[in-house]
Design a protein that fits this description.
- Helix 4 runs parallel beside helix 5.
- The strands form 3 sheets. A 5-stranded parallel β-sheet has the order 9-4-1-10-11, sandwiched between helices.
- Strand 10, helix 12 and strand 11 form a beta-alpha-beta unit.
- The protein is of the alpha/beta class.
């Protein structure tokens, strides 16, 4: 069984889409995604040019939450389209696959699993990114990774600082989120045998600091059409497979202020007997977590077109059908 995983914010990098433009059909898909995303706020503002942001924008620009989130989802969908030009759910797609996404990557995963249309996922991520950027601008907040330490001591240190454990990514890696003062207090009094590393994100995501953004998405969600997933789709809230389209959408909205439990997703993948993990672009982070949490599982990080052959081989050996082939 193959796990197809989609990364979250922080995985973006300047120029990450440039190599993909050489792959047939990708530039056209990204231009279409830019047209769907449209202006970044209301009816005004400039359109979000995903091709430009993915090729020529600098690090500060692609770090902007309103830019980073649509860019990450578009990159993941473009990478999947390079693997399966007719679509992951087409007759030539893989037969034995489970899908999951970390934070904003859950929108990528939902689109790949058929719970959301590509257009709905892109519009939703545009609004999510804009709303979360606006919420982050209200108060100086951020996130820091706590690597190492005893779990109970890590939890105690985060609580003592006033921050929140926003992401539990794996054993030995928890991400704390809070105000700059709270994170400074955590860095000044870290747990024993642990390092506190400031992350390059612009807000305390997955905490109550994002409540205004969640309220905006709650108002938007009733107008979206969601379908029951055609593939097993794991929620990053608890690793559970979500079977109803409306539940998928509700969880996507709720996760804006709720912790990401990627550790539980990894546990669920192991319990399902997953034999391989393929992380879509912009890849690397989840592949690294899988190496520690899923020993013995074969892993490919699809960072760029140079990894397509390895990804196709992985799919052929672990998901029963080679992309483009209708036979098992």
């Amino acid at each position: 069984m193959l796990a197809l995983v989609c990364p979250g914010q922080g995985s973006q990098a300047p120029g990450m889409l440039a190599p993909w433009l050489e792959v047939a059909g990708v530039a056209e898909r990204l231009r279409w995604a830019s047209a769907v995303v449209g202006p970044v706020s209301g009816g005004g503002g400039e359109a979000l040019d995903l091709v430009a942001h993915g090729t020529t924008s600098d690090a500060d620009t692609v770090r902007d939450t309103a830019v980073a989130q649509p860019l990450i989802v578009a990159a993941g969908l473009a990478a999947a389209a390079a693997l399966w030009p007719e679509g992951l759910l087409s007759e030539g797609g893989p037969t034995d696959v489970v899908v999951a996404g970390h934070s904003v990557g859950e929108l990528t995963a939902a689109a790949l699993a058929g719970a959301l249309s590509t257009e709905a996922a892109l519009v939703l991520v545009r609004e999510r990114g804009r709303a979360m950027a606006a919420a982050a601008a209200r108060t100086a907040t951020g996130m820091s990774a706590v690597v190492g330490g005893r779990p109970e001591e890590v939890e105690a240190a985060i609580a003592a600082s006033g921050a929140t454990a926003a992401n539990r990514n794996a054993a030995g890696q928890v991400v704390a989120a809070g105000t700059t003062e709270q994170l400074a207090a955590l860095a000044a009094a870290p747990p024993a045998r642990a390092r506190v590393i400031a992350l390059q994100v612009a807000g305390a995501f997955h905490t109550e600091h994002m409540a205004p953004a969640r309220a905006e998405l709650e108002a938007l969600a009733p107008g979206l059409v969601a379908s029951d997933p055609a593939l097993p789709l794991l929620s990053n809230a608890d690793g559970a497979a979500v079977e109803r389209g409306r539940d998928v959408l509700d969880r996507i909205v709720a996760q804006v202020t709720s912790p990401v439990r990627w550790d539980l997703c990894s546990d669920a993948l192991v319990a399902r007997g997953v034999s391989a993990v393929l992380e879509l672009s912009p890849a690397g982070t989840l592949a690294g977590l899988a190496k520690r949490a899923m020993p013995g599982v074969e892993i490919v990080a699809l960072k760029g077109p140079e990894d397509l052959d390895a990804a196709r081989d992985l799919v052929a050996r672990h998901a029963h059908r080679t992309p483009g082939s209708a036979s098992a």
